[in-house]
Amino acid sequence: MPPNYASVPGPRPRRRLRVVVGAAAAALLLGMVPAVRHGAESLVGAGGSDGRRVTVATWNMCGVTAWGCGEYGGGEQKAKVLRSLAKDHGARAVLVQEACRGDLERARAGLGADWQVAFQPYQQVDGAGGATPVDCGSGRGEAGIGILAAGPLKDVSPVAAPQPEPGLRRGILCATATAQPGGGLRLCVAHLSLPPADRSDRAAELRDDQLSALLVAGTAKAPGTAGSVFGGDFNSSPPGPHNKDAWIWPAAYFDTVQECAQDTPGQRTGFESTHENGLKLDYLFTALPRHGCARVDTGFSDHRAELITVRPGA
Length: 314
Known about the structure:
Elements: E1 5-8, E2 54-60, H1 75-87, E3 91-100, H2 101-111, E4 115-121, E5 123-125, E6 131-133, E7 143-150, E8 153-158, E9 167-169, E10 171-177, E11 184-191, H3 207-219, E12 225-233, E13 258-259, E14 282-286, E15 290-296, E16 305-310
Parallel strand pairs: 1-15, 2-3, 11-12
Antiparallel strand pairs: 2-16, 3-7, 4-7, 5-6, 5-9, 8-10, 10-11, 12-14, 13-14, 15-16
Helix pairs in contact: 1-2
């Protein structure tokens, strides 16, 4: 059956300057963001009515001050959003991009000792092959991708995929969340390259191979798991007929695995935007039965958070 969908309006923060973004209005307070509730198929409280449903979120946190994110709040506000996604929206795991290591640790500490973090920093590679980490600024540590989960994370592993050389290497990271209703859940977070700004050879394309690597990793049968959810910020629009880059998407996307907001097996267009530029750039895919999808405008990023509720082991 198609999942329940909800879009949760929230404060509209100021847009940062990036390839796909212009300028807009100022950020407001986290307290104005409402919780999502849908009765029997609630996104609030992992497990739902049968105790086996799990909610997973993805959120580009826009944490790097040097990347124009200074107008989207500081570490404490972003940590509060992560805690709200868990406590108010029922997320048992959050896949994050443009996250600051310090913000994740602050959120984890606030959620309790049962929560764990897996983190992979970005690398800025120069023309000589030297790699340096990306600093968030304001003493918040390195920037990167990560997984924040309720319970132990095991088999944490980066996924090999082509990356810019020179340029910004973002990456793919997978881990198994063992303490989930219905059994362990394999989680993979990805932040794909942004063409063409990251590439030395602008005729080349990296996202197609990155999407393929993510699909293989995200659908691999992991021992002791009851399914998988994978996604993140793909810096790519869905493969509609008017998208000149539609060819980058492997055929299994939206088919063998379905996206959080997908209404029908054949849907490839018509998705609500997740970014302030009006495009859908953020995704959550799974082959598990879906029981809900929501987007939350946190007020502290140019990306909305997206949340999917699945039933592992079904």
